[in-house]
Design goal:
Structural class: alpha/beta
Oligomer: single chain
Mean pLDDT: 85
Helix content: 40-55%
Distance between the termini: 70 Å
Number of strands: 9
Length: about 240
């Protein structure tokens, strides 16, 4: 198997997006002592179809052994290498509001190969304070020391997100994770991943509404029965 990065080898973006899911599923299997896994078992653990999983893994040059399946440890190493997790990635979180505080305290970054190195904010009342063991700095201070491979995480209000992205691009940052509810304009060669929690909730609300509509009178009857039961319990 070649060690060339996924982007240069033409691995589809949808496949790249599923690789962390497979990696998480493999970690769960390894934790329970599983040494080998079939494509069907791994697909079920990852929540995808087995044919899609086999197609995705074929881009990595990993086909498993007929009648045996995939070696869990080896496949984890292959996927981790393809995702670049053998490198030390530093993360700068910009915006120390409630979300920034929560991200700074999130232990999952370290366990997945990412080290939160800088916490950044322009509020003078926050600069110099300590959050999750790190000292908050401003953007000018960050600009004096960004390492190669820095990933910028934007957790600012939407009005500040684009100026922050512009500064990150000026520093040579090529990877941005954006939590602000807005679309960022960045030059070619800069990758932006957007996390919009409100949008995800709205999508869930859509599905919930249509599920209720399909149930129709049955849902209304159930709601009445629940209300009656609660009233009887409190009377």
């Amino acid at each position: 198997m070649t060690d060339a990065p996924a982007a240069r080898r033409g691995i589809p973006g949808a496949t790249v997006a599923r690789l962390p899911v497979y990696l998480r599923a493999l970690a769960g299997l390894a934790a329970t002592g599983v040494d080998t896994v079939s494509s069907e078992e791994l697909a079920e653990a990852a929540g995808v179809r087995s044919a899609k999983l086999r197609k995705d893994l074929s881009y990595l040059g990993s086909y498993g052994v007929r009648g045996v399946g995939y070696d869990v440890v080896r496949l984890r190493e292959e996927i981790a290498r393809e995702l670049g997790l053998q490198y030390d990635w530093s993360v700068a979180i910009i915006g120390m509001g409630n979300l920034g505080h929560a991200l700074a305290a999130y232990s999952g970054f370290a366990t997945r190969g990412f080290r939160v190195t800088w916490l950044v904010d322009e509020d003078p009342t926050l600069v110099g304070s300590r959050i999750a063991g790190l000292t908050v700095i401003d953007m000018d201070a960050l600009a004096t020391q960004p390492p190669a491979g820095l990933i910028g995480v934007i957790a600012t209000p939407p009005t500040a997100a684009q100026p922050v992205a512009d500064r990150l691009v000026e520093m040579g940052v090529h990877s941005i994770l954006n939590f602000a509810p807005c679309v960022l304009a960045v030059p070619d060669g800069v990758e932006v991943r957007k996390v919009d929690l409100a949008t995800e909730l709205q999508i869930l609300a859509f599905h919930e509404q249509h599920a209720r509509a399909e149930l129709g009178p049955l849902a209304e009857l159930a709601a009445v029965e629940v209300a009656d039961a609660r009233q009887e319990a409190t009377s």
